[in-house]
Amino acid sequence: MFCELKLRLVALSDLIKNMGHLTIVMTPDFLREFLKSMGLKQADFGAWLAERLGQDRPYAPSEISTWEKGNRPVSYAVQAVIYKHLWESCR
To answer: With respect to CATH, is domain 2-89 assigned 1.10.260?
Structure first.
């Protein structure tokens, strides 16, 4: 599934160049599927994110839960870390 996303993102690159920019919003289902595919629980994912973002404290499971439930959007910084990981894992 995730390598297919890479192919779609590559195909969108020309569209993005023509439109100027494109906002990609991560859905709660996508985030849940990502955690499942990585075998991470919310606490582990919070630590994984913090490490990659250079933060001293991990994201709390309650914060991740709000993203998974769709109560709050996933920040662009977090989305960037996830998409970067997916991009690199599909090389």
So the answer is: yes
